């Protein structure tokens, strides 16, 4: 190879392999070359060579050293979104390739990550997922329970069960119906403390509610302004903890009507005065529409949740 061709090879902007961007993203996420090496299963010197090669190919410095580790430059931060998009695309290709590998009996295969709130994941989804597991034994479902909204665009999850309408254009969303929320308490608590006749009477009761206010709670409080942190004798940001407290007879709190129906000891309080509708949505990134596994889980969740919400009270 002559010297002219060597110079062309070293010019910034030549074709750069995905492996270099993968390593770059690993260092960004882990904050060090050693952390990226562990996360990616590479030797640390290999990580260093990849970063060096990428900087040379781009003609840009990507990291500076500090006592806190490697700090990304402005150029690195600008490239991050594109590198993440490449990672998502690579993951999608890998998923599609895995799904095409059929088992000995032609079973659908794949791993699908589903996110939902704690109470939805524990109290509502298990029968739906159990039925799906019987019908599609080759599928693996990872259930992520969190009241924090997982970012589908960043692929923190593949499918989300949400109580607010998704707004991002890149998401496929389906409205499944409306869940009704109401006030409930165990009957023996109400026998002792009395049954409130008005919303104002709640001030004399032990109330179970949240600790930290969220955007969803702020929106719900527009229809129930007196439901505020200062009024609660028992506070928790865990929906499961609140439900357990209601079932234990600790006081009055908000619960899904359908869930309360499955707890014989719970009695509804002030049904004519307080009913909060809760829209339920299913969302998935549009890039996953070609994934047979994701489509199958999406449809199973949509069918199961719709059936549950259509059941008579």
Write structural notes for this entry.
This protein is of the alpha/beta class. The chain folds into three domains: 3-99, Arc Repressor Mutant, subunit A (Orthogonal Bundle), CATH 1.10.10.10; 110-176 and 279-310, D-Maltodextrin-Binding Protein, domain 2 (3-Layer(aba) Sandwich); 178-276, Periplasmic binding protein-like II (D-Maltodextrin-Binding Protein, domain 2). Helix content is 42%, strand content 21%. The chain has eleven helices and eleven strands. Strands 3, 4, 5, 6, 7, 8, 9, 10 and 11 form a nine-stranded mixed β-sheet that branches. Strands 1-2 form a two-stranded antiparallel sheet. Helix 2 (18-30) crosses helix 3 (33-40) and helix 2 (18-30) packs across helix 5. Residues 22-73 form the HTH lysR-type domain. This is LysR family transcriptional regulator.
Short summary of the structure?
The chain is α/β, with parallel strands linked by helices and 313 residues long. It has helices at residues 3-9, 18-30, 33-40, 44-58, 74-99, 118-135, 187-193, 215-220, 239-247, 257-261, 292-310, and strands spanning 63-66, 69-72, 110-116, 139-145, 159-162, 171-186, 207-209, 234-235, 252-256, 266-269, 276-285.
């Amino acid at each position: 190879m002559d010297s002219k061709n060597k110079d062309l090879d070293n010019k910034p902007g030549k074709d750069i392999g995905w492996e270099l961007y993968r390593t770059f993203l690993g260092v960004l996420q882990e904050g060090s070359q050693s952390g990226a090496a562990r996360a990616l299963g590479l030797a640390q010197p290999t990580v260093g060579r990849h970063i060096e090669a990428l900087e040379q190919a781009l003609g840009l410095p990507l990291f500076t050293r500090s006592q806190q580790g490697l700090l990304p430059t402005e150029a690195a931060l600008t490239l991050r979104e594109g590198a993440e998009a490449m990672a998502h695309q690579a993951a999608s290709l890998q998923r599609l390739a895995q799904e095409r590998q059929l088992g000995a009996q032609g079973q659908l295969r794949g791993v699908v990550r589903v996110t939902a709130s704690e109470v939805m994941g524990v109290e509502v989804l298990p029968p739906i997922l159990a039925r799906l597991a019987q019908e599609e034994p080759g599928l693996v479902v990872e259930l992520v329970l969190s009241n924090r909204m997982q970012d589908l665009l960043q692929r923190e999850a593949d499918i989300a069960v949400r109580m607010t309408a998704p707004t991002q254009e890149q998401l496929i969303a389906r409205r499944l119906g409306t869940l009704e929320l109401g006030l409930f308490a165990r009957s023996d608590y109400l026998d002792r403390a009395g049954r409130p006749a008005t919303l104002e009477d709640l001030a004399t009761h032990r109330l179970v509610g949240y600790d930290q206010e969220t955007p969803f709670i702020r929106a719900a409080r527009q229809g129930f302004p007196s439901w505020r942190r200062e009024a609660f004798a028992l506070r928790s940001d865990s929906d499961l903890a609140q439900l357990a407290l209601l079932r234990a007879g600790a006081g009055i709190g908000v619960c899904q009507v359908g869930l309360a129906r499955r707890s014989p000891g719970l009695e509804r309080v002030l049904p004519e005065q307080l009913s909060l509708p809760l829209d339920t949505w299913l969302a998935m990134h549009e890039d996953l529409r070609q994934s047979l596994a994701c489509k199958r889980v999406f449809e199973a969740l949509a069918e199961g949740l719709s059936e549950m919400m259509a059941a008579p009270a």
